[in-house]
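Q: What changes when inosinic acid is included in the input?
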Amino acid sequence: MAKIHEIDGLQFHEIVSSQQIGQAVKKVADQITADYQSTNKVVILTVLEGGRNFSDALLDELADAKFEHVEVKASSYNGTTKSTGIVRFEGLMQLNLLGCDVLIVDDIYDTGATLANLIFKITSFCPRSVKVAVMFDKKRSHDRKVKINYIGMEVPDVFLVGFGLDYQEKYRDLPFLAQLILE
Ligand code: IMP
Ligand code: MG
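A: The predicted holo structure follows.
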Protein backbone atom coordinates (compact mmCIF):
# COMPACT_ATOMS: atom_id res chain seq x y z
CA MET A 1 0.00 0.00 0.00
CA ALA A 2 1.25 3.48 -0.90
CA LYS A 3 2.15 5.71 2.01
CA ILE A 4 -0.29 8.63 2.16
CA HIS A 5 0.88 12.06 3.34
CA GLU A 6 -1.52 14.88 4.09
CA ILE A 7 -0.11 18.39 3.58
CA ASP A 8 -2.11 21.64 3.32
CA GLY A 9 -5.28 19.53 3.36
CA LEU A 10 -4.20 17.71 0.17
CA GLN A 11 -3.41 14.02 -0.28
CA PHE A 12 0.00 12.89 -1.52
CA HIS A 13 0.38 9.23 -2.43
CA GLU A 14 4.07 8.40 -2.10
CA ILE A 15 5.21 6.32 -5.07
CA VAL A 16 9.00 6.56 -4.73
CA SER A 17 10.72 6.80 -1.34
CA SER A 18 13.64 9.13 -0.64
CA GLN A 19 15.81 6.05 -0.23
CA GLN A 20 14.88 4.78 -3.71
CA ILE A 21 15.57 8.25 -5.10
CA GLY A 22 19.03 8.21 -3.48
CA GLN A 23 19.80 4.82 -5.02
CA ALA A 24 18.69 5.96 -8.48
CA VAL A 25 20.83 9.12 -8.26
CA LYS A 26 23.84 7.00 -7.31
CA LYS A 27 23.20 4.65 -10.25
CA VAL A 28 23.07 7.56 -12.71
CA ALA A 29 26.17 9.19 -11.16
CA ASP A 30 28.10 5.93 -11.59
CA GLN A 31 27.06 5.70 -15.27
CA ILE A 32 28.06 9.33 -15.89
CA THR A 33 31.42 8.85 -14.14
CA ALA A 34 32.16 5.81 -16.30
CA ASP A 35 31.03 7.40 -19.58
CA TYR A 36 32.99 10.63 -19.08
CA GLN A 37 36.10 8.94 -17.70
CA SER A 38 38.34 10.26 -20.46
CA THR A 39 36.69 13.71 -20.72
CA ASN A 40 38.55 16.59 -19.03
CA LYS A 41 35.65 18.96 -18.61
CA VAL A 42 31.92 18.36 -18.54
CA VAL A 43 29.38 21.18 -18.37
CA ILE A 44 26.37 20.17 -16.30
CA LEU A 45 23.50 22.33 -17.53
CA THR A 46 20.68 22.27 -15.01
CA VAL A 47 17.16 23.12 -16.13
CA LEU A 48 15.63 25.20 -13.35
CA GLU A 49 13.61 25.06 -11.29
CA GLY A 50 12.69 21.42 -11.53
CA GLY A 51 16.14 20.02 -12.30
CA ARG A 52 17.75 21.58 -9.22
CA ASN A 53 17.13 18.77 -6.73
CA PHE A 54 18.37 16.06 -9.08
CA SER A 55 21.37 18.11 -10.17
CA ASP A 56 22.36 18.99 -6.57
CA ALA A 57 22.17 15.32 -5.60
CA LEU A 58 24.10 14.26 -8.72
CA LEU A 59 26.85 16.83 -8.18
CA ASP A 60 27.25 15.58 -4.58
CA GLU A 61 27.87 12.10 -5.96
CA LEU A 62 30.07 13.20 -8.86
CA ALA A 63 32.31 15.36 -6.62
CA ASP A 64 34.97 16.01 -9.26
CA ALA A 65 36.19 19.46 -10.32
CA LYS A 66 35.87 18.49 -13.99
CA PHE A 67 32.08 18.78 -13.67
CA GLU A 68 31.30 22.47 -14.10
CA HIS A 69 27.84 23.69 -13.30
CA VAL A 70 25.65 26.19 -15.17
CA GLU A 71 21.90 26.80 -15.12
CA VAL A 72 19.06 27.94 -17.35
CA LYS A 73 15.55 28.68 -16.20
CA ALA A 74 12.76 27.07 -18.18
CA SER A 75 9.04 27.53 -17.90
CA SER A 76 6.37 25.63 -19.73
CA TYR A 77 3.62 25.17 -17.18
CA ASN A 78 1.45 28.10 -16.16
CA GLY A 79 0.65 26.94 -12.67
CA THR A 80 -1.67 24.27 -13.97
CA THR A 81 -1.21 20.51 -14.18
CA LYS A 82 -1.04 20.43 -18.00
CA SER A 83 1.95 21.39 -20.15
CA THR A 84 1.31 24.43 -22.37
CA GLY A 85 3.87 23.32 -24.98
CA ILE A 86 5.37 26.82 -24.98
CA VAL A 87 8.83 26.84 -23.39
CA ARG A 88 10.85 29.91 -22.44
CA PHE A 89 14.49 29.92 -21.30
CA GLU A 90 16.34 32.53 -19.27
CA GLY A 91 20.12 32.59 -18.97
CA LEU A 92 20.82 30.75 -22.23
CA MET A 93 22.46 33.64 -24.03
CA GLN A 94 25.12 34.10 -21.32
CA LEU A 95 26.44 30.56 -21.80
CA ASN A 96 29.58 29.78 -23.74
CA LEU A 97 29.28 26.15 -24.80
CA LEU A 98 31.50 26.22 -27.87
CA GLY A 99 33.36 22.90 -28.07
CA CYS A 100 32.03 21.77 -24.67
CA ASP A 101 30.71 18.38 -23.59
CA VAL A 102 27.29 19.36 -22.24
CA LEU A 103 25.15 17.23 -19.97
CA ILE A 104 21.63 18.61 -19.56
CA VAL A 105 20.01 17.69 -16.25
CA ASP A 106 16.24 17.96 -15.78
CA ASP A 107 13.63 16.60 -13.43
CA ILE A 108 11.31 14.69 -15.74
CA TYR A 109 10.65 13.72 -19.33
CA ASP A 110 6.96 14.33 -19.92
CA THR A 111 6.03 15.55 -23.42
CA GLY A 112 9.69 16.20 -24.25
CA ALA A 113 8.91 19.78 -25.35
CA THR A 114 11.33 21.39 -22.88
CA LEU A 115 14.29 19.23 -23.79
CA ALA A 116 13.61 19.28 -27.54
CA ASN A 117 13.53 23.10 -27.45
CA LEU A 118 16.61 23.36 -25.27
CA ILE A 119 18.70 20.95 -27.35
CA PHE A 120 17.70 22.80 -30.51
CA LYS A 121 18.85 26.10 -28.99
CA ILE A 122 22.07 24.69 -27.52
CA THR A 123 23.08 23.15 -30.83
CA SER A 124 23.52 26.67 -32.24
CA PHE A 125 26.33 27.23 -29.66
CA CYS A 126 28.35 24.43 -31.37
CA PRO A 127 29.06 22.21 -28.35
CA ARG A 128 31.21 19.11 -28.85
CA SER A 129 28.53 16.80 -27.46
CA VAL A 130 25.12 17.06 -25.81
CA LYS A 131 23.67 14.37 -23.57
CA VAL A 132 20.59 14.38 -21.36
CA ALA A 133 19.92 13.05 -17.86
CA VAL A 134 16.44 13.06 -16.32
CA MET A 135 15.50 11.79 -12.91
CA PHE A 136 12.03 10.61 -13.90
CA ASP A 137 10.66 9.28 -17.17
CA LYS A 138 6.87 9.38 -17.46
CA LYS A 139 5.56 6.21 -19.03
CA ARG A 140 3.67 7.46 -22.08
CA SER A 141 2.94 5.78 -25.37
CA HIS A 142 4.10 8.64 -27.62
CA ASP A 143 7.29 8.55 -29.65
CA ARG A 144 10.38 10.08 -28.13
CA LYS A 145 11.18 13.61 -29.31
CA VAL A 146 14.70 13.42 -27.91
CA LYS A 147 17.13 10.74 -26.90
CA ILE A 148 17.62 10.50 -23.15
CA ASN A 149 21.02 9.13 -22.15
CA TYR A 150 20.46 8.71 -18.40
CA ILE A 151 17.20 7.95 -16.58
CA GLY A 152 16.83 7.69 -12.81
CA MET A 153 13.59 5.71 -13.01
CA GLU A 154 10.32 5.29 -14.87
CA VAL A 155 7.22 6.73 -13.24
CA PRO A 156 3.49 6.49 -14.04
CA ASP A 157 1.77 9.09 -16.22
CA VAL A 158 0.01 10.95 -13.39
CA PHE A 159 0.57 14.38 -11.82
CA LEU A 160 3.58 14.14 -9.55
CA VAL A 161 5.28 16.35 -6.97
CA GLY A 162 8.50 16.17 -4.97
CA PHE A 163 12.23 16.00 -5.70
CA GLY A 164 12.02 19.04 -7.99
CA LEU A 165 8.47 18.65 -9.27
CA ASP A 166 6.02 21.30 -8.12
CA TYR A 167 2.37 22.13 -7.99
CA GLN A 168 2.03 25.93 -8.25
CA GLU A 169 5.68 26.31 -7.12
CA LYS A 170 5.07 24.23 -3.98
CA TYR A 171 6.26 20.81 -2.79
CA ARG A 172 9.48 20.75 -4.86
CA ASP A 173 11.57 19.95 -1.81
CA LEU A 174 9.63 16.91 -0.65
CA PRO A 175 12.35 14.23 -0.37
CA PHE A 176 10.05 11.60 -1.89
CA LEU A 177 7.99 11.46 -5.11
CA ALA A 178 4.24 11.49 -4.72
CA GLN A 179 1.12 11.56 -6.81
CA LEU A 180 -0.86 14.65 -5.90
CA ILE A 181 -4.54 13.88 -5.63
CA LEU A 182 -6.53 16.92 -6.72
CA GLU A 183 -10.28 16.41 -6.47
P1 IMP B 1 7.92 18.34 -20.85
O1 IMP B 1 6.45 18.18 -21.09
O2 IMP B 1 8.68 17.05 -21.06
O3 IMP B 1 8.47 19.50 -21.63
O4 IMP B 1 8.08 18.70 -19.33
C1 IMP B 1 8.06 20.03 -18.94
C2 IMP B 1 8.22 20.22 -17.48
O5 IMP B 1 6.96 20.04 -16.92
C3 IMP B 1 9.12 19.27 -16.71
O6 IMP B 1 10.48 19.61 -16.76
C4 IMP B 1 8.57 19.46 -15.33
O7 IMP B 1 9.17 20.59 -14.72
C5 IMP B 1 7.10 19.70 -15.59
N1 IMP B 1 6.31 18.49 -15.33
C6 IMP B 1 6.06 17.43 -16.14
N2 IMP B 1 5.31 16.51 -15.52
C7 IMP B 1 5.09 17.00 -14.26
C8 IMP B 1 4.39 16.50 -13.12
O8 IMP B 1 3.82 15.39 -13.09
N3 IMP B 1 4.38 17.31 -12.03
C9 IMP B 1 5.01 18.52 -11.98
N4 IMP B 1 5.68 19.02 -13.02
C10 IMP B 1 5.72 18.26 -14.15
MG1 MG C 1 11.30 21.29 -15.63
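Observations recorded in class: The helical segments are 18-35, 52-62, 113-123.
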